[in-house]
Amino acid sequence: MIDKRFDLAAAVADISDGATVLVGGFGAAGSPIELLHALIDQGAKNLTVVSNNTGSGNVGLAALIGRGRVAKVICSFPRTANSTVFQDKYRAREIELELVPQGTLAERLRAGGAGIPAFYTATAAGTRLAEGKETRRFGDREFVLEYGLRADFALIKCRQADRLGNLVYNKTARNFAPVMAMAAKTTIVQTASYVEAGGIDPETVITPGVFVHRIVTVPNPLQESALVAAGASYP
Amino acid sequence: MSETIQKGVGWSRREIARNIALSIPDGSVVNLGIGIPELVASYIPPDREVLFHTENGLLGMGPPPKPGEEDPELVNAGKQPVTAIPGAAYFHHADSFAMVRGGHIDICVLGAMQVSRRGDLANWSMGDSDAAPAVGGAMDLVSGVKTIFVAMTHCSSDGTPKIVERCTYPLTGAGVVSRIYTDLAILDVRDGEIGVVELAPGVDFATLQRHTEANLVINRVPRTA
Question: How confident is the model at residue B127 (pLDDT cuts 50, 70, 90)?
Answer without folding.
Answer: confident
